[in-house]
Each structure stands twice: as structure tokens, then as C-alpha cells.
Amino acid sequence: MTAPDLPELLPDVGALAALMRKTGYLTDVGLATALFCATRLGQPLLLEGEAGVGKTSAALALATALDTRLLRMQCYEGIDIAEAVYEWNYPRQLLAIRVAEAEGKDVTTGDLFHRDFLIDRPLLQALAHPGPRPAVLLIDEIDRADEHFEAYLLEMLAEKSVTVPELGTLRSTVPPICVLTSNRTRDVHDALKRRCLYHWIEHPDVARVVQIIRSRVPGVDEALATAVAAAAARLRGLDLQKPPGTAEVIDWLRALQVLGHPTLDDAAAAATLGSVLKYKEDQEAAIAAGLGRMIGV
């Protein structure tokens, strides 16, 4: 089911890319196409790529572009249904029992286990979203959750519904746009992938990084932005534990600005290396490779 105005708002991939651009997120054709299909078809989208390439930001920008609610569920090892989907409001149920006892009324299971006593967590909040436009449900870092929780998601992703044993199946009237992200710390199951569209996000090239920097840091010197973007691309060519993503590139540039470095030279790079490389071993690798060579001096 598609919101009535989505075809008019998003007639094609270019329209979606333009809306994303207004939020400050610059997307390439591949990602814009994947997001467009997910939005118009109502099919979940699995985004994979190295940390820092903009997977989470893509979902945040999509919600902003569509002027709709964003619901984010951060996955981690051990996450369960009570934290992700729903739980019963036990204090309220206990209060209802005491009130009934004080009034001399009998309390049945049906009196306690109904919708009013259910606490909605992100997944159920997304399904209950009234519209008119669908909410964007971000299931972030699904690879950090265990396989049992991943299996639980299959019903929600395929049927846009969840089953509560005491209530039955709760279905969405305005199905959410589901965006899942993964850093590939483990492979997600084929059953989940079958239910999703898929897109791998590469690190953007230097020219697009410069565009992103200039949209995020107004007034930045283009030569400095280009030097920083090119240096980050060279650093990613090293064997690093954490190659710098776009967020680190922007942090690096801002550090140079606040320290008053108008150009990226050896001294400036050495002083701000912690803004772009977050492991001691990675910094040592960059120094061993020659900071001057890394920054193009």
C-alpha cells in the first residue's frame, strides 16, 4: 500500500534524489534508485557497506525528505522482543487488579491483556503509525543482533504485522518504509535477504565528498575540502582497522578550521590525525607510510 501522495511527490528517482539533496544528503544514482523502489514498492531495503559510508544517514535523510516520522531501533547482541517490539505494562495491570478488587469486581485475563495495556516499542510504533505518509523504520546494524531475533523480524518485514500471543496478529494500516543497515560483522540470513531489496554503499569518490563537505560545512575553502577528501581516500588505501568515512572527513576538516590551519600540510595533519583515524595502530600505519605522501605533499 502506498500513501496517496507519494506517487506525486516521488514520480521518479531524480525527484527523490532532489529531496534528499535538500536535507544535505547527496546520493548517487544507485542508492537513490534503491531508496525510491523501497519507498514506492513498500519493500524493505537492506543497506550494507563499511562503517561511515552513510547507511544510517540515508534513512534519517529519507524520513526528513518525506516529512514523516523516523523510528530507529538500534540492534545489539541480546536485544529481545520486549525492547524492540512490545511489552506488557505490568504496573498498570496490577493497578487495574487492585481497582477491580476494591470495587468488588472479578478480573479476567481478557481484562488485563488488551491493547490499552501494551507498551509499543519501535517496531510496533512503526506499524501503528497512522499516516498519511508511512513512517521510516530504521533497523540499525542488524548484524549485531542474534539470529533468533533476525528470524523474528521475518513476519514483520514480509507481512507488515506482528503477532502478540494474547491479542493475535496486529497489522499495519500504513506500512512503514523499512531500512535495515549492516556493517557485515556477520552475514545476515538468506531468508531475510530474500525479503529485502539490497544495495551496497561504496565510499563516495573525492568529488562527491567535496560536495558533501561543502553542503555540511558552509563557507569552507574548496581547496582545503579537496585536499582533505583526497587525503582520506589515500588513507583508505592503507590496511586500516577503521578506514575513515565521510563523517570522519568532515570532523577532520572542522578540526583544521578550529585550529586555524588554512592548508593541509605535515604539521596540520599530525596535529589533527586523531580526528580522522580512531585507532593507535591506524595512526602509526599512516605515519609509517609517510604523512606527506598521504596528504599529497
Brief write-up:
It is built from 16 helices and 9 strands.
How does this structure look, described?
Helices cover 48% and strands 13% of the residues. By secondary structure, it is of the alpha/beta class. The protein folds into 3 domains: 150 residues, P-loop containing nucleotide triphosphate hydrolases (Rossmann fold, 3-Layer(aba) Sandwich), CATH 3.40.50.300; 35 residues, no CATH class; 89 residues. The strands form 3 sheets. It has a 5-stranded parallel beta sheet, with helices on both faces. Strand 6 and strand 7 form a beta hairpin. Helix 11 packs across helix 12. The longest helix is centred in the C-terminal third of the chain and has 14 residues. It is elongated, with a radius of gyration of 24 Å. The N and C termini lie far apart (55 Å). The mean pLDDT is 90.
